[in-house]
Amino acid sequence: xxxxxxxxxxxxxxxxxxGIAHRGSTLSFGSYGIKTEQMGRLTSRxxxxxxxxxxxxxxRQGQVWIRIFPxxxxxxxxxxxxxxxxxxxxxxxxAKIKPGRILFEIEGVKEDEAREALRLAAQKLPxxxxxVMRKDLA
Length: 138
What we know:
By secondary structure, the protein is α+β, with helices and mostly antiparallel strands. It has a domain of 86 residues: CATH 3.90.1170.10. 20% of the residues lie in helices and 28% in strands. The chain contains two helices and seven strands; from the N terminus they run ββαββββαβ. The chain is elongated, with a radius of gyration of 19 Å. The mean pLDDT is 91.
C-alpha cells in the first residue's frame, strides 16, 4: 500500500487570477451587497478597514457578512538583502478576488443606508465594486 508523502512546507507562488467568479457570485445571506468588477488581491487590512467603515456608518444596526477570507500567505524579504538564502518571512495574508465575487452583504437596514455604507466600504478597497440587491426587493 502506498504511503502519502509528507510535505514539509507548501510554497505558494503568485500565479495569475483568470476568469470570472462562479462561486460566491450571488447574494446568499443579506439583501444588499457589493460585487467586484475587477480582479485583484485584497489584504486582510483592507478587508478589515472596509468592515469597520460599514459597521460605523450603520451604527451597529443590522447585520454584516464578510464573504471573503484572506487565506493566501505573502512572503517578503527585508530591504537590501542579497539574492538567495531561501524564501522570505511571512509578511501578510491576501484574498484572491475574481470579477463578480460578492465581498460584503448587509441585512436589516434601509436601501439608502445600505447603499451609502457599502459605498464607503468600496472606497477602502483597491478594486472597483458595484452595489447589488436581491432580485425580490427590486
